[in-house]
Fold this protein.
Amino acid sequence: MQHGGVALRYAEMSLWLRRCGDAARIQTSGEQVFRRMGAESSLTNALSEHAAFGLTAQRAQQLVAEVARVVSGWQAHFLQVGVSVTDIQTLAQYIDRPFLKTQRDAVLSP
């Protein structure tokens, strides 16, 4: 996508679309991508559509690894900012459920 003669990458494009408030365009594009990807919400499936987000396969893998590193430290961060242990345990059921944690750990292991 281009804006003002400048080619926008995914990050810039998503910010630009949000700023423009083009929800219908975002929804349509997202629906098309997810239809191609199928129902499985896995990192492998998401990475298979890297081009739909204006990313090379290498850049998409870098971004997934960066997010996995950040998410892997969520509990320590939440404790540091005062979230209760009870709330962290509740959130862990969702954030660290096996399906997600296994994928995250696989990205982080060499």
The mean pLDDT is 75.
